[in-house]
Amino acid sequence: VRTRLEAVDQKTVISLEVMDTGIGIPEEAMDRMFQPFSQAEKSTTRKFGGTGLGLSISKRLVDLMGGKIHLTSEFGKGTTFSVQLQLETGRQIEKQVVDEIQKLALASNSRKRPTLLGRVLVAEDNTTNQKVIARMLEKWGCKYHIVANGNEVLDVMRDTRFDLILMDCQMPEMDGYTATRLIRQSNPLAQNTPIVALTANAISGDETLCVQAGMNGYLTKPVDMRDLEAVLVKYLKIDTRDQVASEV
Question: Which residue has the higher pLDDT, 193 or 61?
Fold first, then answer.
């Protein structure tokens, strides 16, 4: 990573460069890299993860700040992303605004949630997404198990019954579509288990593939807490002991 201060005159012009020595990007894929849900590798069992949103979001942020972003790459040797930003001198955020933000955060974290009964299987190969979803499930008191690909889904389901499966569609070795079809076809104990897709492609029409594979619905990534809450409440049972305690 390299940064340079290029000029100072009312506005500060900053240049950022991020370079890697990875696999590079083929020339035919470079034009679409800043488009939403676009990736150089399109296979659902791709070796390299990601949702295809990072560069699109980065470009929108840079555009909103009046800057420019572009890339150069040599296939097999690496890629360089460059950003130029013109930033005005920042102003200190008023204490009143900070206080209001903190109040909202505390209110959100302290909201009482009932405990949900049942086991949730999470199939997700991205470690960051695993941690985020696990934290959300913990807020509801859910028991959960996390695996990283479709083969691991089938392995763990031979010995364990789950009440809900959150299935990433794109995973290495075996994708979520294939795993779901095999569950529906060959596992009598799990043929009626709710399976909800985790997908970054729902708005582009891939929800049809989820339904055809045998899934009951889908959540778009990054997963929103409210959307996940709706799924959990729909498919899991509420611990009645929580209701008795609240009445007392």
Answer: 193
Nearest in space to 79 (alpha carbons), one of 6, 164, 19, 163: 19
Cβ contact 194:164 at 8 Å? yes
| Global confidence as pTM | 0.60
Q: Which two tokens stand for residue 164?
A: 């809900």
- 185 phi-psi bin (left φ>0, alpha ψ -120 to 50, beta other): alpha
CB 17 within 8 A of CB 79: no
- H helix or E strand, kind and range, residue 78: strand 78-88
CB 121 within 8 A of CB 193: no
Instruction: Name 232's Cβ contacts closer than 8 Å, sequence gap at least 6.
Output: 116, 120, 137, 140, 142, 164
The helix, strand and coil proportions of the chain, stated in percent and rounded to the nearest 5, come to 40, 25, 35
In degrees and rounded to multiples of 5, residue 212 shows phi and psi of: -65, -30
pLDDT digits (tens, 9 = 90+) for 208-230: 888 899 999 989 888 888 889 89
Residue 159 has pLDDT above 70, yes or no: yes
In the 8-state DSSP scheme, what is residue 31? T
Query: Which pLDDT does position 69 carry in this prediction?
Result: 92
Task: Give the per-residue pLDDT at 208.
Answer: 83
Question: What's the count of helices (H) and strands (E) in the chain, helices before strands?
Answer: 9, 11
Task: Report the candidate in 145, 139, 169 with the shortest Cα–Cα distance to residue 157.
Answer: 145
**Phi/psi of residue 91, each to 5°?**
-110, 145
